[in-house]
Amino acid sequence: MSYRVRVRKVKARDLSFLLTVVVLAAGLSACTGDAGEDSPAPAAASDAPSPSLEGTLIQPGEPGEPAVTGGTPTVPEAPEYNHSDIAFVQMMIPHHAQALEMARLARKYAVDTSVRTLAARIRAAQGPEILTMSSWLEAQDVEVPKAGESAEEYDHGEHGHDPMRGMLTDAQMRRLAAARGAEFDDLFLRGMIQPHRGAIQMADAVAVGGSDLLVSELAADVKATQAAEIARMQDLLRS
To answer: Which of 12-21, 153-162, 219-228 has maximum average pLDDT?
Structure first.
């Protein structure tokens, strides 16, 4: 008898617990429903593209004023080569070629070690420069002078540009080739100063009249290198 009463009490507690759970669940459900109805829906992301300032000029305003946007910026085009650039390169190739011929003679006939060293330095500098200048002319679809070709074929003085300067005459070259010993050294130094000075004058001319960056850099290098070599040759002549 007592067992049945105890069982009934357990069942009553269980029933009370279940009723409590149901009431709580109903309350939570109502709260959730109310929140879903009253809460605003999240704003949808706009499909319209955001304005871009790329390629737009922005001019800062005066203090307290907004910035002002303008048109798209313009990038200036690099200047192309002109006739002065072509004249310099076409004339400098045979100019360098003659200097290389003089340097080859020095390798055979010079007796002073300093003269031979200077001649080797000239060969090392001007040989690659000829290749650079030839490649530049080919890239512009312009005729490349050949070694030993008459410089007058590419003398652009008649077009208003400075003419070829400083090259030795055929008679001077024959005299140098026939000289030996100390006489050769003296003729070589004096003869090489002449075209070096001419090259500097031509470099100065294209620095003013030219527009191509590569030619400008080449002319500046020619001027700096050959000015230093002139000073060295003058020292050797004095000694």
So the answer is: 219-228
